[in-house]
Write a structure and sequence with these properties.
single chain; mainly alpha
């Protein structure tokens, strides 16, 4: 966060956008989405965020997703809009896409996530300011439950039509955004302005359900019960920074187990 802040000359809105971009891409497309967000100045989002089509054009174009020949009216329209944006802002685009669809559930397709990200910035022009003032998980759910643009209600990709369905950010996905973007950013911001409220931040993360992944599942086989995201984050830190690196002697739990054995 501090590195992104330095790069953006203390533009908190820009830092939030880059972190959101990375986390909207999850593990599979996180780096590709971050590369997209780094490929233009955040001011371009601000200049075009009144129009969902222009934001989708910017995001899809800078992700290299508008390089194909596809017989789809919406896709062709985005290609034409992108040529205009590319010329106007002198954008450097990718010759081919680096985003992946393979082994992803349809709701996590990069097309769906980028459309949701675009809609979020259309609805909330001053997103950082809004997020930083909230203190309950329910308040974040209400703010972030955005859907895709209309086109993506009947599509998952540009090539095939699907059954019409509104595609909102789910509570479980918003939980990931809270854990990986909003809470860390809120902590750094409060520390930066000298108004750190540690208890409030800890209380916030304890309102979130624990993550479900292979590491947490493995811990549960040792009868370790995880009640909230604070505890699941602690276990992930333990596994990644101690167990994986075989730092048993520097770990209080490792020391305890070794002494008792």
């Amino acid at each position: 966060i501090l590195s992104l802040l330095e790069q953006s000359k203390n533009n908190w809105e820009a830092v939030l956008f880059k972190m959101f971009a990375k986390n909207f891409g999850l593990k599979v497309n996180g780096e590709a989405f971050l590369q997209m967000a780094n490929s233009f100045d955040f001011s371009l989002v601000q200049k075009n965020q009144k129009d969902i089509i222009l934001l989708e054009t910017l995001f899809f174009g800078q992700s290299g997703m508008l390089c194909s020949t596809i017989e789809d009216v919406y896709y062709i329209n985005l290609q034409q809009e992108y040529q205009y944006l590319k010329h106007k802002y002198r954008l450097k685009s990718l010759e081919e896409s680096t985003v992946k669809f393979f082994r992803l559930r349809p709701n996590n397709f990069p097309t769906i996530r980028l459309s949701q990200l675009a809609r979020l910035y259309v609805l909330h022009p001053n997103l950082f300011s809004e997020l930083i003032d909230l203190n309950t998980v329910d308040a974040y759910y209400n703010l972030l439950q955005v859907a895709t643009s209309t086109y993506w209600e009947t599509h998952y990709s540009f090539k095939n039509i699907a059954t019409k369905r509104k595609k909102n950010l789910t509570k479980s996905f918003i939980d990931l955004l809270l854990i990986n973007t909003i809470i860390p950013l809120k902590f750094v911001y409060q520390k930066h302005i000298g108004k750190l409220q540690e208890d409030a931040i800890l209380e916030l993360i304890q309102q979130i359900k624990p993550e479900k992944n292979s590491i947490i599942t493995k811990f549960s086989t040792f009868n370790i019960t995880v009640k909230n995201a604070l505890e699941s984050q602690a276990l992930l830190q333990l596994k990644n920074e101690y167990c994986n690196k075989q730092k048993c002697l520097q770990c209080a739990i490792g020391n305890y187990l070794l002494k008792n054995n």
